[in-house]
Amino acid sequence: MEQQHFELKPLDFRDDPSPTPGSMPLRTLRANLRRELPGAGRTATVRPVVSPTPALLASVAVGRPVRGEFTYLVPEALAGNLAPGQRVLVPFGRGMALGFYLGPATPPVEGGVRLKAIQRVLEDSPSLPKDLIALLRFAAEHYRYPLGEVIRGALPPGLSTAVDEKAAKADVQHFAVALVTEAPRQLSRAPAQSAAMAYLLAVGGRAPLEEVAHAIPGARETLKKLAEKGLVRMEEVELKPGVREGLQQGRPAQLTPEQDVAVRELQGAVDAAGFQPYLLHGVTGSGKTEVYLRAVEHALSRGRGSLVLVPEIALTPQLVGRFRSRFGGDVAVLHSGLKDRERLFHWQALRKGTVKIAVGVRSAVFAPVENLGLIVVDEEHDPSFKQDEKLRYQARDLAVVRGKQAGAVVVLGSATPALETLHNARSGRYKLLELKRRVDDRPMPTIEMVDLRVERPRDGVVTEEAPILSPPLLQAMEETVAKGQQVILFLNRRGHSTILLCEVCGLSLKCQDCDVCLTHHRSQNRVVCHYCGVAFPVPDRCRECTGPMLKLGIGTERVEAEVAERLPQARVARLDRDSATSAEKLTELLASFARREIDILVGTQMVAKGHDFPGVTLVCVVMADTSLAIPDFRASERTFHLLTQVAGRAGRGKDPGRVLVQTYNPEAEPVKRVLAHDFDGFAHQELEWRKALAYPPYARMASVRLEGEHPEQTASVARYLGNLVGRHMPPASAGVRLLGPALAPIARIRGKTRWQLLVKGPTHASLAPLLARLEAALAEVPSGVKVVLDVDPGAML
Predict the structure, then answer these.
(1) What distance in Å separates the CA atoms of residue 627 and residue 642, rounded to the nearest whole number?
(2) DSSP 8-state class, residue 221
(3) Res. 577: pLDDT tops 90
(4) How many other CB atoms are found less than 10 A from the CB of residue 142?
(5) Judgement on whether residues 588 and 474 belong to the same structural domain of the protein
(6) At what angle do helices 317-327 and 288-301 cross, to 10 degrees?
């Protein structure tokens, strides 16, 4: 059996991203494990043989869910012909597996072991460049995930399986080209055609057919119909990576003074050719995207590549369009909607250096950009940059690590920076660039508070029919619509009523498989669980006492109904996951709003992300309190982010903007600070609180989450792991703390009981010994209990 080694010392990437792990043989770990779990463990059978010379040993990561690297023999025919990053085929267990050659290996620490040989090499040149291998090593070590699986997940289809490499034959690509500059009115009766045309216009009038089909299902047939009407032309062109078409398209002649300062600073940093992280803190509408474009343009002129990460590419086609119109064929857009051969084509184009710019979502942090000189993370505060399954990485943090490893400039941009990022800027680790004014000196929207403790329903009774919209909100909406301007109503709760409560016994209607209340959807006349999806008709009576049910709480569906009733002259629509059930419907709804065919748009956080609607002059926050009570230390920060982002949708055109915020908690810190446009004040208060309680950025955390079908078994494993950590806690002076084990805030989801425990420490290195012991113990956890280690968790639920 091959000797397996486990890496034990994850580093704090903010201190030193260069991994220098120690190692411990699997045999030693299992011996330790037997002392922790008497009678547990499996014995490794080792047959002594004479070890080969070190020059003929290879370190290989296997694309299987197993920890560590494995040592294999290098056949004489391959000696001197292997390069780090090449895919290889290796024997593993009773079969063969995909492996990744990482470099020469040293002989096993213990005496001779029987080694197997690499069977063959699957490609002529490495798929992975050396700098990317270093990043993947760090990610596997830091986030506690098998290295081979990390590498396999970073590769595109065609390279992530044990087959010989086939060159991507994407020699011809089909494009759709809009022949009009705006969608004709007659398309309003054909939603699918209108959506396809709106997407084309949003990305600059020309886009690959595969891309449009990814955004809008069924777009191929839809575009053919548009072509028959003479509105679209279909083109078949030979792909020529690196061709830069129309470099100056959409380039403003003059920057604002603040943009100019930021651009000059970033250009100088690119010229210096060294690692330098920046926080670009710019208010909404201040022109951060143009700063990114100028920095990328400068890096390109110096022969260096750029990587641009965005939170959700489907919601921001305008950003992709701006990059394409500026840089043409030098842009690879990375997403899962392309055909496998096209994804492989774009990967190989980046790998060969024929394309210099990659734009994509969080997984694009692993794109093989050659000679990387600039990394941009737009809306860096967005929770979407944290992966919540398999390799649970934070793309923003890995972007900083990659920048340090590559000697690149890193720009983290946001109107509401994450407090970890802000702390790094204030402590001098990142340089701060600020854009305090909007483009063309447009004023920031005025923000007013509506105290719902005063503006109560007129009869003072809370019922299903009680009004939601206060008189000030209704008046402001009437005035705005009368002027021909648009309104956004924001509420981060979908459905009609969020609680169904028995008037007699007070019992709330909950999901039988999840520890959450069911939500009433009146349009479907059903109650729905937003976690497991179970749905059934609304019950007339309480399950326990047969008393009548009272519907409380509000969702977007109820707000839409009330707006339609109170303002019958207005055209009203709703944007949430219930209404935008497909990419087609989402695109068409946003396009209709952009064409001013909708006066009032009611929506969840989907309306707050990256949209630019010049016609919107009024934004109303229906209930600012919905996210304040969530049991998460980031609840206040996320509330502030959401309120600020949605407020930023107002006044982006020539008319000034106005924001009204309804709340029952006018003294809540996020609400007070948003009203005053006071991010600095909010950040100061929140950071003081986190420092006192030792939460990030003043501590590092790792959570251990458990879920199982049998409550007693799950609780038993949770208590065992808690005792294991407790017995090996360092001295109190080390500052490491254990919280839990305890039931998770949502104790059941899909019928499975959930527990969690949390370890906190001043650095990641201080947590490493505990995490290593936990990893060893996980091998013996019963199969009925799933245990997940989440380093730097993004949420506590």
Answers:
(1) 10
(2) H
(3) no
(4) 23
(5) yes
(6) 30
Taking alpha carbons only, the member of 329, 13, 47, 301 closest to residue 141 is 13
User: How far is CA 345 from each of CA 146, 166, 415, rounded to the nearest angstrom?
Assistant: 27, 10, 35
Q: In the predicted model, is pLDDT for residue 644 greater than 80?
A: yes
What is the pLDDT at residue 614? 84
Mean local confidence (pLDDT), 699-728? 95
Contact by Cβ (8 Å): 424, 697? yes
- The two structure tokens encoding residue 198: 């709106």
629-662 burial, b at 16+ Cβ within 10 Å, e below that, comes to: ebebbbbbbbbbbbbbbbbbbbbbbebebbbbbb
Taking the mean position of all CA atoms in its chain, how far away is CA 106? 39
Taking CA atoms, 386 is separated from 57, 212, 391, 771, in Å, by: 37, 26, 10, 20
- Residues 335, 312: contact at Cβ < 8 Å? no
The pLDDT tens digits of the residues spanning 531-561 come to 777 888 888 788 788 888 766 668 888 899 8
Residue 751 token pair? 């019928």
Cis check for the bond before 614: say yes or no (omega within 30 of 0): no
Structure tokens at 565: 């009733």
**22-35: average pLDDT:** 41
Radius of gyration over every alpha carbon of the chain, rounded to an integer in angstroms: 28
Q: Is 137 helix (H, G, I), strand (E, B) or coil?
A: helix
Q: Tokens 């090996």 belong to which residue?
A: 728
- For position 210, what pLDDT does the model report? 67
Model confidence at 316, pLDDT cuts 50, 70, 90, reads low
Give me the number of domains the chain comprises: 6
Residue 43: pLDDT band with limits 50, 70, 90: very low
Residues 190 and 134 in one domain: no
Q: 44 Cβ partners below 8 Å, 6+ apart?
A: 1, 26, 27, 30
CA 328: distance to chain centroid? 26
In a domain, 245, yes or no: no
CA distances from 703 to 156, 354, 529, 715, 779 (A): 30, 42, 26, 16, 18
C-beta neighbour count of 138 within 10 angstroms: 23
561 and 673, same domain (yes or no):
yes
Residues 113 and 187 in one domain: no
What tokens appear for 628 in the block?
Answer: 């304040």
What dihedral do alpha carbons 600, 601, 602, 608 form, nearest 10°? Answer: -130
- What is the Cβ-side half-sphere exposure of residue 204, based on CA atoms within 13 angstroms? 18
Asked if 501 and 484 sit in the same domain, the reply is no
Q: Are residues 117 and 202 in the same domain?
A: no
Residue 126 lies in a domain: yes
Nearest to 138 by CA among 309, 307, 11, 4: 11
Partnered with residue 62 across adjacent β-strands are 99
The CATH number for 118's domain is: 3.40.1440.60
For residue 674, pLDDT beyond 60: yes
Cβ 159 vs Cβ 343: under 8 Å: no
- Per the listing, tokens 């087959």 go with 163
What pLDDT, in 10s, does the model give residues 723-749?
Answer: 999 999 999 889 999 998 999 988 899
Residue 196: domain span: 172-238
Q: Any residues with CB less than 8 A from the CB of 460 and at least 6 apart, and which? A: none
pLDDT surpassing 70 at residue 314: no
In this structure, the answer to whether residues 452 and 515 fall within a common structural domain is no
Instruction: Specify the higher pLDDT residue, 279 or 20.
Output: 279
29-33, 109-113, 641-645, range with greatest mean pLDDT? 641-645
The CA distance from 50 to 567, in Å, is 86
Task: Give 31: exposed, middle or buried? Use CB within 10 Å, 0-12, 13-18, 19+.
Answer: exposed
